[in-house]
Design a protein that fits this description.
It comes from Trichinella nativa. By secondary structure, the protein is an alpha/beta fold. The protein has one domain. Helices cover 43% and strands 14% of the residues. The chain is built from eight helices and five strands. Strands 1, 2, 3, 4 and 5 form a five-stranded mixed sheet that branches. Strand 3 and strand 4 form a beta hairpin. Helix 1 packs parallel to helix 3. The longest helix has 17 residues. The chain is globular, with a radius of gyration of 17 Å.
């Protein structure tokens, strides 16, 4: 049997954050811990990726890691806003998609697409076939922002980006096959 490589010796690592919806604040906490307590390990990650909230943390870690804690506080503030709405996310006139866009644009600088290109892998799902696609090439800041928003697709609340339409990358992970019954 071939011995498994020792992670302490590996130089070309990848970091992945799963889709976790409103628990993305935990991913931010993990990213802060990597930065604070494992900077030498963090430097060995040549690429990072994720779906949904995980994609947001991946992009922030690569493009603007000095703002992790500030972003954490902004996410908690957004959660408090939603919590205080009469019907939460379902409150007429409230758009989580709009708030996410504002947060992403606050922390993603104009040159972030260059930093993220080939390093940040954003998981999205084809809306029609439910097949997964990883986006890792970005032509502009807007391209990166739209890819992140597509990965955070919330049914009935978010727009659908690109043709063919793509949505949250977590969807294709859950719906492996349309021919078989799946229990999650």
């Amino acid at each position: 049997m071939k011995p498994t490589p020792n992670i302490l010796e590996e130089q070309n690592l990848a970091l992945s954050f799963c889709g976790c919806g409103f628990l993305g604040v935990y991913h931010l906490g993990s990213a802060v811990c990597f930065k604070r307590y494992g900077p030498s390990l963090l430097k060995r990650f040549s690429r990072t990726g994720g779906a949904s909230a995980g994609s947001l943390v991946s992009a922030l870690l690569v493009c603007n890691d000095s703002k992790l804690i500030e972003c954490y506080h902004d996410i908690l503030e957004l959660a408090n806003i939603v919590r205080n709405l009469k019907y939460g996310l379902l409150t007429p006139g409230f758009s989580l998609h709009k708030h996410l866009r504002m947060l992403i644009e606050k922390y993603i600088s104009d040159d972030s697409h260059s930093k993220a290109d080939g390093k940040v892998f954003i998981s999205v799902s084809n809306f029609t076939s439910l097949t997964n696609k990883l986006i890792s090439q970005y032509r502009s800041k807007e391209d990166l922002v739209n890819s992140l928003l597509a990965s955070c697709y919330i049914p009935f609340f978010s727009g659908i980006w690109e043709k063919p339409p793509i949505i949250d990358g977590t969807v294709s992970s859950v719906f492996i096959s349309r021919k078989k019954r799946i229990t999650t």
